[in-house]
Amino acid sequence: MDRNNPAPSWREQQPRRILVIDDNPAMASSMAEVLELEGYAPEIARTGRQALEACSHASFGAALVDINLPDISGEALIKKLLSRQPEISCIIITGHASLESAVNAVSAPGVAGYELKPPDMDRVLALCREIFARQQAQAEARMFRDIIGNMQNGIYIYKMETRGGEDIFRFLTGNPASVQITGVPVSDLIGKTMFENFPKLKETSIAAQYAALAREGHAVTPGELLYEDHRIPRKWFFVKAFPLPDHCLGVMFEDITNRKIMELELKQRELELQILSHKTLSLQEKERARLARELHDELGQQLTALRWGLDRLENKVDEPAHKEQIRALTHALSAVTRHLRGIVKGLRPPLLDDLPIDLALQSLVDEFRDMAAFDIRADFAGVAGLRIPEQSATVAYRILQESLTNALRHSHATAVLVSMTREQDKAVLRIEDDGRGFDPESLRGASGGFGLAGMRERAALCGGAVSLQSRPGRGTTVSLHLPLTENPKG
Length: 490
Ligand SMILES: Nc1ncnc2c1ncn2[C@@H]1O[C@H](COP(=O)(O)OP(=O)(O)OP(=O)(O)O)[C@@H](O)[C@H]1O
Ligand SMILES: [Mg+2]
What we know:
By secondary structure, the protein is α/β, with parallel strands linked by helices. It folds into four domains: 132 residues, Rossmann fold (3-Layer(aba) Sandwich), CATH 3.40.50; 105 residues, 2-Layer Sandwich (Beta-Lactamase); 88 residues; 127 residues, Histidine kinase-like ATPase, C-terminal domain (Heat Shock Protein 90), CATH 3.30.565. 48% of the residues lie in helices and 21% in strands. The protein is built from 14 helices and 15 strands. Strands 2-1-3-4-5 form a five-stranded parallel beta sheet, sandwiched between helices. A five-stranded antiparallel beta sheet has the order 7-6-10-9-8. Helix 2 packs parallel to helix 3 and helix 10 packs antiparallel against helix 11. Bound molecules: adenosine-5'-triphosphate (ATP) and magnesium ion (MG). The site of magnesium ion (MG) has 5 residues, from helix 13.
């Protein structure tokens, strides 16, 4: 809005109607002309009856009343006008003969002044300006009172005073909502200071903030406040203070206790879920390790024993056909053993606490290279020889595993680039494919795969974070930021 040329208030936008009542047509129209030139909307009435009729179809802010009318006395007409339009202000236009009654009438309600005929229009216009300005101020005050009275937020108004160097906020008034919210009647608060009324406020940051507002006009940041005293039960409030004219302070507040309780419950729930998923993931890792051990130790030994038995059998038989059959069995057994080794490896990352991270990740890349239809390039030069805590290494390993599995299953990529770099106190693992991509938003709330969600959970396990960039037709990039502890092992 233009500061020098503010928009007219809603009241200024209404036509400013003035009723001109005079039985002399020339006098009436010359007054009306002047009024019109000044932007007013005049309407002429020749008799009292016409004037009252006009009042039934339009409302007037002011009336210029000739008190010598043929059909009614000036005094009676003004009374009738007021009974129809209580807000109207009358300016009496009188000849010398009726001056006395005009002067008497000025003290009557609804009469703003008088003018001798022929009227000095400058003075009449000055009176009109005053009348309309007052009416506008009254209407605006009424409107704001109604708005504040109907608001759901509580409002307190204070007067700011300084007594002996101390800032005092004296309570002036409050709206009905304030009573509903606090349970304290406005009449109990009037005249006392903010801290007399609400003693516990002194212990909050509000005291200093309001003092700064009073002294330097500093804005007070709206904020949340937990409050309780002998009258007000423990509640959360959202509070906003704003300076008002005449050293007054408005404080608007809202009871947000229910929302706060829900927020806290939600946070608690989130925390519990996080703990649960951390537990689940580490249990999963343990369970996989146990399975891997079992498969390796038990099944692996039995397969070795079988292999050994077959070898001995082969040496014992002479029949070439039997020898051939045994060789075929040995061959099949080798395939089963390789397969088992693959499963064990997938279940348990290679000795992550022994290997530097680049070698661990490289071994996984090599495994995928054998299976994948796309070209995989890996760059771990930035972390060559770096040892990181086993838990972080497991997280990186699993996220790479899931990302490459996704690329294999979903991407139709021709090339995948895997890299791990060091950025200050972080290691950043990136898996970038040039495949068909997807819209990550479309997965929100969808009950689809567990892979991407699992990556995020895993990253959180060691204080890291995963971000996903993908667009249909534009490939997919998964990035993992892993914090490196001050003193990584080794
Ligand atoms: N690299 C990728 N290229 C294209 N689409 C992908 C890629 N990675 C994931 N997606 C899409 O995101 C979806 C969710 O992936 P997510 O790993 O969470 O589940 P999933 O792979 O379908 O199943 P899960 O991992 O549980 O076995 C996939 O179904 C796929 O549509
Ligand atoms: Mg997946």
